[in-house]
Amino acid sequence: MSFRHLGRIVIPPPNAERYTTVCQFCNVGCGYDVYVWPAGEEGGLKPGEHGVVYKIKDTVYDRELKPESTDFTRIEPLSHYLGIPWISESMVVRTIRRDWFRGRGTGEWREVYVAQIPSPECPINKGNHSIRGGTNGERNWSPWNVAGARRLKFPMVRFGGRLEVVTWDYAIDLVARVVKGVIDKWGVDNPKWGKEGHSIFAHRMDHGGGGGGGMIENVTAGLFFFYGVRTAFARIHNRPFFGPENPAIGDAGPGAMNNSLHDLRLADVIVFWGTNPYTTGTVMFIEHALSNLRGATADEKGRWFDGEPVVDTYMIIVDPRKTETVEAARAAARDRVLHLAPEPGTDIVLANAIARVIYEKYRNTVDNILQVYRQAAQRGFGWDENAWRLYIEEALEINRKPLDQYLAEAERITGVPRRDIEKAAEILGAPKPGGYPKRVWLMYEKGIIWNQNYRSIYALVDLCIMTGALRGIAGTGCQRQGGHQEGYAGPEPPPPPWTNERLHMSPWNFAKLNRIELKTYDDYKRLFH
What we know:
single chain; Dimethylsulfoxide Reductase, domain 2; 18 helices; 4 domains; alpha/beta; five-stranded parallel β-sheet; four-stranded antiparallel β-sheet; about 35% helix; Phosphorylase Kinase, domain 1
């Protein structure tokens, strides 16, 4: 970074160019203000002497920022809430840019400062930032940037346990020889290895490089893997196969992203399942989840609930590990945080066990929620009564297996004590005073996506349906957390050998492909058996 260890930074002057953007790292989408101004100029500390000016009246979050509030002579802890952002050394970089006097990018090269500052105007982060987000400015290219100097410019190969720089010709030839040797020895397909028997496994970083080269790099990589090497055993960097990351929630109806972070602030119950948001979505967790858990959003709830009672918020965290998220949540409200630590790979059993208890012990609440879906179906909502009945009878084994036996098996398989399963069901299913169902907000991520994927996600969606998380009202939601902003362009892969196997596609698509009519409950049972 340009100012590391100097003990001071330059502040944008009043005439600095100002742009808005979002953080490039995680899924939260924190807002940032970008200032650009000529090197050699800088603003002062007092209002009017610099260009960091905020003016906003936010009626949703009940905030108001005034231009005269940005006084850098009186920075205090958490001053970003007052409209005075903390500007660190890693947010400002000195670089070069063409001047724009005769049009964008047409003039002489000039030295400029670029400051990328978390914006107090943005309701997502309110001027706060994660550790990664605070380095957005540093990641702008600069000939004087220490981070840029560390960037690898040549390939490296390990010789005798030590990485050594090699030429591009050497590296390309080495990779080609290894790939060719593997194909010559084992072939592309090997039936003895089963349906996934491919000698070349393509693990690709699909987002491409910076500077607009992403699409070209994606296409080129796709051509190499799918047509040059001819492997169908490929996956994108953040998912276990080459395809959508969570198709089950799309097949179920709502799609992977179906609510806003404002819903997180209004929820009665927050569930983080297979995700560690204190580390991977820091601002979302601190500004919204913990604020809700502490009771800081009670007034907001009062404005949105229209007479519905505001109750203490509970949080359920499902993760085999005792993560930073668990520790931070317990520090905020120890008696209202439940941590469930299932054995890896047993999430389906755990989700169904919680749902079974809810269905049996809080049946009236469940029926009220189902009535909402059924009424919505009259207005076009895609409610499937036969699929719901199949879930109740086949997955939850209602009327087929006693509750005690069902929970005993779940406890044995998952390692989660029965009392915790029942506590989770109570938190999610017990109605609020007046009989109101709780507003449930559930988020999942890689712990589920990389864990049987389709069936695990569908089990969570079914649990969300039962708890009313998909009612479409404020404070509810059922979605993945997300990784970061992304995009893909490239060729379709060749047909893999398992295309026609139903376990690798949704049952509904399988039925459509094979022209199986799904009209009665018996049709559904035949499909799944």
